[in-house]
Specification:
The chain contains 4 helices and no strands. By secondary structure, the chain is mainly alpha-helical. Helix 1 runs antiparallel to helix 4 and helix 2 packs antiparallel against helix 3.
């Protein structure tokens, strides 16, 4: 049964990456359940970061950590922008907000692609090494 562990771990990382990609839209999650699922997926990816550090796969761990933290950093940025918009022309504020969303989406999808590549590499190595450990 221990031979299945790496396959299940890497498969679960892909599920967590899907959850982060699906829930972390440019707007904040709609309900408390989405926040909980996003928090669990982020926590699982941070656990993956820890496991990848132990396996000495440092670039892969960096992408897992980044994709786990990027949505939360963006929500903090949205909160900060919305709480400090006094005295700003509404059109300028809207343009700045659109720019922030575009930058967030660009970084999120770039990091997501790298993290999915890292998870698929781990899944490939798990299948390749399946049954070879005693």
């Amino acid at each position: 049964m221990e031979a299945y562990r790496p396959i299940m771990l890497n498969g679960s990382y892909l599920v967590a990456l899907y959850a982060v990609a699906y829930i972390s839209a440019p707007l904040t999650p709609q309900g408390i359940l989405e926040y909980v699922v996003l928090a669990l997926a982020s926590a699982w990816l941070l656990f993956g970061l820890y496991n990848l550090q132990k396996e000495h796969r440092r670039p892969s761990s960096m992408f897992f950590g980044a994709i786990a933290l990027i949505p939360w950093a963006f929500y903090g940025e949205l909160w900060y922008i919305n709480s400090n918009n006094d005295g700003i022309d509404p059109q300028v504020f809207e343009q700045n907000l659109k720019h922030a969303i575009m930058v967030y989406q660009s970084f999120k999808y770039m990091i997501m692609a790298c993290a999915v590549g890292a998870a698929l590499k781990g899944l490939w190595l798990s299948f390749k090494n399946f049954g070879s450990t005693v």
